[in-house]
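Reviewer 2 asked us to include a model.

Predict the structure of this chain.
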Amino acid sequence: MRYYLESLGCPKNLVDAHGMARLLKHLGHEPVADPRLAQVLLVNTCGFVEDAREESLGELRELARKKRRDQLLIATGCLSQRWGEALLDHVPGIDALLGTRRWSEIGRLLEDLNQGHKRQPRPRRALLGDRDPASPETGPQTARQGATAYLKIAEGCSAPCAFCAIPLIKGPAVSRPADEVVKDAVSLVDEGAKEIVLIAQDTTAYGRDRGEGDGLPDLVRAILDAVAGERQEGLPWLRLMYAYPGHVSPRLIEVMAGDPRVCHYLDLPLQHAHPDTLRRMKRPANVDRVRRLIADLRAAMPDLALRSTLIVGYPGETEDEFQTLLDFLADVRFDRVGAFTFSVEEGTTAASLGGGIPDEVKAERYERLMALQQEISLEVNQAQVGRHLDVLVEGQGDGLSVGRSYRDAPEVDGMVLLPGDLPVGCVVPAHVTGALEYDLIAEVEGDPAGAGCETPGTR
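Predicted model (structure tokens):
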């Protein structure tokens, strides 16, 4: 069968989509880029926040509206898992649902649907439930995008955050066996990946479900050892994302600082900086401890790039609490910040909290926070002028190339702009000559034609 697959949402969703594609290819199904040529239409949905749900519903409705009678529409992923068969009321044209915890059954689902489709009337099937998402039969849990690859090390989340629906969608944290993760990393390097990004809902919780209090440093070391030697030339960067502040250990800092292949970059979602707000969020509320952690990270890695995620307008957030967040931001000076206005997520603890903030107040606070961060980001970028950075080239055209340094995670951070048509997928040494609010301007050092695809010697 020919299938069209659209994946929405985060990199973890993308990994699941690539996993489905690998399974379908193994079973002899053929991917197509044009939905009009497909017999099966697959949308891997996101159900994390309202904007993501609306995007997923919009894509499903558009495909349902244009779908022919001989086509099947399947909704997979987070929104299917979260809403279940209620999703059919929002998009009547859906023929089947496949949840996040059972995506490895996509082949069986297609076979069943195809048989039912031949018998008429059109079948509707739902494969949801609690099957282990990290079971060995799912195979590699990776996704390639050019020279960058995402590698999922765990699924689900056991954190108690009051505002987050991820545990309701994904279930509790389940760490993948270390040997499987290492095997995936080796395969990615053998395929030519120049950057591997380790992802999970909380990478620093890796192994805790198995009783390992601090498993991530050992996993990182195992990956680095496995891709050493002949393979080392193929892995310039190993990047860590989504670190829970209370789980970043001295051992992890030591590993990050001790191997030049580990990017001096950390995504540390804090959500807020006022203890009372953090308590209502059921997040770590010891802000002094967070400050000490940031100081320890920067002492070990003076060139560290820190990213954080913040929520404004959480129920009960006073102007004083919000001002504390602004003061914290001005003092700590993150390199990158992503901010969201609070939205109620059904089924979470926060959904029952009083003290809701008017939308116009949330929007005004968001604008103030982002204006402050934009000033900080520009000053941080201006401090990079004159610095030598290695850049992973991701695109080119019209005499200009774009890429990223170790300071920028894919899709969420800024870019480095370089003159010339440079080889895509290669890491080139560059000299920073200018700065914008979020991006850098640089020039390649030496002969671009000779820059090649070599492992960077320095950051």
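The chain is about 35% helix and 20% strand. The two ends are 47 Å apart (CA to CA). We have added this to the supplementary material.
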